[in-house]
Amino acid sequence: MDNLIKSKIQSVEDTFVNTMNQYESKLENALTGTSSTHSQPSEIMQLAVELKKFKAELMQYVAALKETLIEMDQRLDNQEAYSRKNCLIFHGIAELEEDVCSVMLTFFKERLGLANIGMNNIDNCHRLGSKSTPKSKHRDRPIIVKFTTYIVRHSVWGNKKMLKGTRYVISESLTKKRLEMYKKAQEIFSRRSTWTQDGRICVLLSNGKKKTITCEPDLEEAVVDFKEHKSASASVKISTHNLRSARK
C-alpha cells in the first residue's frame, strides 16, 4: 500500500481514538457528578457542540481519504493498462498439441495477410486459463500475444476486419476494472455502440457523439448524457405527435 495512504489512514485512526477518549472522559465526568450539579447541563451541551464539530472534521478526513484512494486506484489501473498496450487476445483458435507462437505466426499469415510478422516481433504468447481435463468439457482457450512494439500490434489490430464472418475474434487485453466497465457499457449502450481502442472504452451516444471511458466517473457521466438525450428525444417525438394531431 502506498505510504501516503498508510499515513492518512493512521492519522484518521489516531485522531478518532484520541478525540473519542477525551469525549468519553468528559461525558463520564459530567454524568457521574465529578463536576458540580449546576455546571452539568452546560458541560453536556458544550460536549455536544464539540462532538458535532469533531464529526464534521472526521467526515472531511474520510472524504479526503476516499479521494486519495480513488486517485491511487486510477493511477494503478492506468499503469496496468499501459503495460498491456502491446497485447492482444485471440479467440476461436483450435487448441491442439502445439507450439503457440508457431500457431500464431501461421494465423497472422493465413488469416490476416501479415506474412511479415516473425518470431522477432513476438515478446511472449500463451493460452489463457486452465487446460481442459478429460472430465471437463473441451474448450479452446484464448491466446494472448504480447508484441515487441506497438506498431506491430497496431497492424494486427487494424486487420481484424478480415475475420468478419469467421469464428475468430481479436480483443484488447483490458484490466479487470476496465473489462467490468466494458461489460456494463455494452448492457447500457448496446454491443454495436460500444468498443475498445488502445485500452480505452468508447461508446457512441444516441446524439452521435463519441464518449471515451477510462474510469467509473466517465461511465456515470456517459450514462447521464445518454439518459438526458433519450429523454429529450422522447419529448420531441411527443411534441411532434401532438402537433400533427392538432392539425388534423
Description:
This protein folds into three domains: 1-29 and 42-83; 85-173, L1 transposable element, RRM domain (Alpha-Beta Plaits), CATH 3.30.70; 174-240, no CATH class. By secondary structure, it is an alpha+beta fold. Helix 1 runs antiparallel to helix 2 and helix 5 packs parallel to helix 6 (216-247). The longest helix is centred in the first third of the chain and has 44 residues, at 40-83. It is built from six helices and seven strands. A four-stranded antiparallel β-sheet has the order 2-3-1-4. The protein has a three-stranded antiparallel β-sheet with strand order 5-6-7, with helices on one face.
- Please work out how many helical segments DSSP would assign: 6
Radius of gyration: 29 Å
User: Given the C-alpha coordinates, what overall shape results?
Assistant: elongated
Run of helices and strands: HHEHEEHEHEEEH
- How many structural domains are formed by the residues? 3
Q: What fraction, in percent, of the residue positions are helical? A: 55-70%
**Strand order across the largest sheet:** 2-3-1-4
Class inferred from helices and paired strands: alpha+beta
Major beta sheet summary: 4 strands, antiparallel
Spans where pLDDT lies below 50 across 5 or more residues? none
